[in-house]
């Protein structure tokens, strides 16, 4: 896994005190200004997006993996070539989420060609779901133009998550958005538990998996709100065993046996989600 200040006399002391005091005042003003800018930014975003994405995005999961220097595994993601094989609304919605997770994974690790491939796969899912209007038409061009700017790239991709979620809710397609979120969450967990055979021996990796308990609880609450929808009901059933495993886990501790169960179940669910006929 990869990833004094010397005082020479009273005069100097006074100068140092004055300097520190001035710096603190300046820092406080800068912090206050930064907080104001952040609040204004959040207010603008809340005005633009009526519906706020309720879970951590896949990017947040894979960024944690990147920070602890976990390697990029090329064949871990869903094959972009499968995109044209997903026909039903449920398949397309779930795999829009899956490919979103893979896109976050590739872009976070600066994998340029893979990022483009997952943009294309995601576009096919958007077209199949009649969601082209949900994201910027020139997103592929923007991604390509920023391929060497990780921060800008991540912002573009994360915004596409938020925009799609907002669009679906504004157009009374909340069940579809729940399926997209499910695909993204499952893919993020799958990547986290299969990125290395040393996952169970890494404190950081264990913490990443443990932190997925609360998002899963939230996700199940969201899905249960639309359980009259057949696709949602099936998805709840798909996640029921995973929910039961996490329900037995304390919020601050997890055993190796539980880690193994989560890894195994994430593979079962994920393989079912990405399967093609």
Automatic annotation (TrEMBL):
<protein>
    <recommendedName>
        <fullName>Lipoprotein</fullName>
    </recommendedName>
</protein>
